[in-house]
Amino acid sequence: MHLNSSDIVIFLLSIGIVLFFARGLGELFKRFKQPIIIGEIIAGIVLGPTILGALFPEYYNYLFTDSEVASTAFDGITVLGLSMLLLVLGLEIDLRLALSQGKAASLVSLFGILFPFTIGFLFAYLFPDYFGIADEKMRFIFALFIGVALSITALPVVAKTLMDLNLFKTEIGLLIITSAMFNDLIGWLIFSIILGTIGQQSHDLGMGFIISMLFLFIFFTLFIGRKIINYFIPYLEKFTTYPGGILNFIFILGFLCAAFTEYIGVHAIFGAFIIGIAIGDSAHLKEQTREIIHQFVTNIFAPIFFVSIGLKVNFITNFDFLLVIIFVSLAFIGKVIGCGLGAHWGGKSTDDSLIIAFGMNSHGAIEIILGTIALQAGLIHERVFVGLVLMALVTTISSAPLMSIFVKRKEMSLLKKVPNV
Amino acid sequence: MIYTKIGLAITFSPNGLALLKTTLRYQKLFNAGLCLIHVGKKNDISVSKMNELLKEAGIKEDSYELIWKEGDPAKTIISAAEERKVDLLIAGALEKESLVQYYIGSVARKLVREAHCSVLILTHPTSDTKPFEKICVSVDYSESGEKTIKKAYQLALLEKAKELTLIRELKIPALAITVSDSGSSKETEKKREQWLDEEEKKLDSYVEELNLKEIKVNTVSLYGKQGYEANNYVSEHKGDLLVLPSPKRKMKFFDRIFQHDIEFILEEIPCALLINREYPKE
């Protein structure tokens, strides 16, 4: 099987059209002060079976389904995009910050995971039919997945929101960022075990083998590999062309580790994420290098992935209003109460606790990635996937406005306390 | 008086004499007491070696106390220094250790991590004992940080140093990620410059408040990991003493694995290093 001329035309045409719609709708959403990713997902819904496929099936089929080779190539690009997305997410996880936090941040991190995870797990385990469980035998794993899905916080959205609300360089900003990092770290670790369990069935590898290889990989990369990388980066920056040398080094390591984790039965993205953490931890890695990688990944590869979500799933036929309401409610209850209580117990005022709670309640791109992989692995149905995507969109859109209500309230109460001169 | 009692971890290493001479200079400069701590067996050979060393350094007989102890070097030095109420320990160290040695911890690095008093680490002690000319201090706006700056200032005056540079480092975690999604590099860069500008102004007014008038004081704000950037700055600008306030707690193995600010400096010590710890008052 190889790409003939017409396959190449279809492949390139589809990539071009996907990027065009992603950028167009992304910019439109930016005008309304919304994250570009929302535009990109809607671009997928527009180009996918939901709209284009329903109105002009011949065009949809021509672009995305007729040529099997072109669709495989397209899938390859999305895998590449996904791995890169997790690599750049890992780059921003500051391990020391995430692991040695102050009292308030530790409580927010802990309850921000424990509370949503527990309610998600219990609901899914006790009422699996509401969530449309794909395979009854996987009830426990399914419940674990829903728990993780509800406890994840999207670091990129959080960072951007803090920037927009001018909270980045504040105590609350730092607390939210460190808690979000911790959340992501723990969330992906649990998810990797879930993936390992699924991988055991599809790869025919022993569970003991997968888990021991997984922990060996994590240990080696985060403890030894991290130091070796840190040692080599200054030499790379000195002896290779900047930024080409260092960019290649990062992506080479990223893809190799991604291949390794896929091989041992855990999804490729997990390897990319862990090696991302190891690379990003290096003090030698320039801020400019990080930004170049972010630009490169989020403007070219990420849009292709986010659009591809809508290309595969019909968002109308799989829309289940009750399920969306359940997901959105559980997301709000879990994160807002969990993080809010954590902040409150950590000694924060009510307004600060609420700013932190709503700040942490944005599931964004990370949720969508998690959902996509669970869908591909056959752990969830399309109905659940659509519910998760919509929950991610609702929490992402609502996070900044809800936070700003309490930021303003805090500012007002501070103003009132200042005596008139 | 900056420090009242100096302790020297005295050894028969090639740098031993230079270290002793430097210590004697500081003893005179600070008008302080001196306690020489040697960890090792006391026998005829070592005693004669010690006498030779002391004689060569030209030390006055009644100006010091010599302690011989056996045991784990770092622990013994620390406990002896604590017993004798030493408030400045001096030791020699290599600029860089092998990766394994760094994790296990050399004697000098253990002193920095665990001592109860201030520690001065000299990487290139010389027998002609030149004074420090370019002194750099890391600023963290804490109470102990302020005392550290004042001590560095006093030291700079005593040493007749050419300049005193106050370094402030700033790092906003996950800032780079804001350029993804709808952010732009330009906006992020602008924000970073704005924050650095704010830090610079804050630092200038802080220096004004501290009233450090008798010497040329420079201020620098750097963006990057704490400890790492100060280290780079001192190396690039050929500073000869870096002064830091001591961390509030002892450094543990965890702090080497997930590097604490001070560990970036201990990994590759750029010049002489003074970790100032406020000696607990009785």
Question: What would you give as the CATH superfamily of the largest domain in chain B?
Answer: HUPs
Strand content of chain B: 15-25%
**CATH second-level architecture of chain A:** Up-down Bundle
What is the domain total for the residues of chain A? 1
Please identify the structural class of chain B as seen in this structure.
alpha/beta
Q: What do we call the CATH topology of the largest domain in chain B?
A: Rossmann fold
Q: What global shape of chain B is seen? A: globular
Distance between the termini of chain A: 81 Å
Poorly predicted runs of chain A are: none
The spatial strand order of the largest sheet of chain B comes to 3-2-1-4-5-10-9-6-7-8
The name of the CATH architecture of the largest domain in chain B is 3-Layer(aba) Sandwich
The quaternary structure here is: heterodimer
Sheet with the most strands of chain B? 10 strands, mixed
Low-confidence stretches of chain B: none
Q: Let me know the number of strands of chain B.
A: 10
N/C terminus separation of chain B:
17 Å
Mean pLDDT of chain B: 86
**3D shape of chain A:** globular
Per DSSP E runs of 2 or more residues, the count of β-strands of chain A stands at: 0
CATH class descriptor name of the largest domain in chain B: Alpha Beta
Radius of gyration of chain A: 22 Å
Structure description:
The complex is a heterodimer of chains A (421) and B (282). Chain A has one domain (76-412): Na+/H+ antiporter like fold, CATH 1.20.1530. In chain A, helix 10 (171-203) runs parallel beside helix 16 (350-360) and helix 16 (350-360) packs antiparallel against helix 18. Chain A contains 18 helices and no strands. Chain A is mainly α and 421 residues long. Chain A has helices at residues 5-31, 36-47, 52-55, 57-65, 68-91, 95-99, 103-126, 139-151, 155-164, 171-203, 207-239, 244-263, 268-280, 287-312, 321-345, 350-360, 364-376, 382-417. Chain B is built from 10 helices and 10 strands. Chain B folds into 2 domains: 1-130, 3-Layer(aba) Sandwich (Rossmann fold), CATH 3.40.50; 132-282, Rossmann fold, CATH 3.40.50.620. In chain B, helix 1 packs across helix 2 (44-57) and helix 3 (73-83) packs across helix 5 (107-114). Chain B is globular and about 75 Å long. In chain B, helix 6 links the parallel strand 6 and strand 7. The relative contact order of chain B is 0.14. Chain B has 282 residues and is α/β, with parallel strands linked by helices. The two termini of chain B are 17 Å apart. The A-B interface holds A 26, 29-30, 35-37, 88-89, 91-92, 94-97, 99-100, 155-160, 163, 168-169, 174, 177-178, 180-181, 223, 227, 231, 283, 287, 290-291, 294-295, 297-298, 302 and B 99, 172-183, 185, 187-188, 191-192, 195, 223-225, 228, 254, 257-260, 264.
